[in-house]
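If your schedule permits, I should be very grateful for your opinion on a structural question. The matter concerns a single protein, recorded as an amino acid sequence and a row of C-alpha cells. Could you please explain, in whatever detail you think fit, how the C-alpha cells follow from the sequence? I set the record out below, with my sincere thanks for your time.

——
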Amino acid sequence: MLPELKIAQLRHFVWVTELKGFHAAAEKAHRTQPAISLSIRDLESKLGEALFEKRNAKTAKAELTPFGLYFLPKAKELIAHHDRIAEDMTLLSENKAGHLRLASVPSIASRILPGLLQEFVSAAPDLHISFYDDNSIAVLKMIENQKVDFGIAHLFHEEEHPDKRFIPIWQDQIGVVCPNDHPLARQTSLHWTSLKSHRLITNGTSRLLEDSEASPLLELSQFYVSNMISLIAMLEAGFGVTTLPWYAFPQESTKLSFIPLAGPHVVRRIGIVLLKNKSLTPPAHAFLNFILEKSGVLDC
C-alpha cells in the first residue's frame, strides 16, 4: 500500500534542509522544534527510510542521507504541484480565473453588457470569457445544450420551459421603426392597424406580438429578416417598416425613427435564463450576482 504523504510534512522536510536545521524550520513553521522532529520522523516512517543522518549532539546541522538527497527534488515537486492546484482553485472560487460562457440577445449585448463586463473583469484580469449574441430562441438553445453557463434573453411562454429559471431584470416597450421620411414617422404613437397598409418586415422579436391584438400583422408580413444588421440596412433603404423593442432600436442611426406602439402596449421582459438542475461555475455565479447587484434586483 502506497504511503499517503502530507503536504505539511513535506514542507517541514524542505525547510529543515534549506534552513540547515530543525530549530530554524520550527520558527518558520511557527511550531516547536519537537513538533518538527516528530513530523519528520512520521514522514520517514511512511517512506521507510531515514531522510537525515544522525545528528551530532554538538551541532544543530541537519545533513541529508543519500535517500534524503534523492527525495528532496521530489518533495519540492509535490509541494509546487499542490500549491499550483490550490492557487488555481482559490482564484476560481474568487472569480479571478476560470472560464465564463455567456450568451445574450443583441440589444442587451450591445447596449448594457459592455459596461457590466468591463467593470466585472477589472477585478478578474485572468478570467477567460466566451460570449455569443443571438436571438432569444438561439440563446435558449445554447442554454439547453449547456454551451453557455447562462443566457440573457426574453423567455417566450415561460410555462413551456419548466426546466429553466427566469430572473427578469430589464424591460422595454415595443415600437414601430421606419425611415425618418416615412409617413408613420410623424406620429407620436401608433395603433397596430396603422401598419396594415405598409410593408411590414418581421424579425426575431416579432413573436412578442403573438399573444396581443396585433397578432394578425404576423400573417400579413411577406418578409422575415433574422439578422439585425441586414434588417437595419433594409429599413434605412426604405424597404419597409418593422417592430422592435426599444433596446433593439439602433440609436446611432440618423435615418430611422422609433414610434411607440400604443395599441396594444406590449412590453418585453429580459433577464437571466439558466437551467434549474445545473449549478453555476464560480465565475458564472459571481457574474450573475454582479448583474443583479448593479441592476438593483433581488434574487428570490
Notes: The mean pLDDT is 92. The chain has two domains: 7-93, 103-269. The longest helix spans residues 66-93.
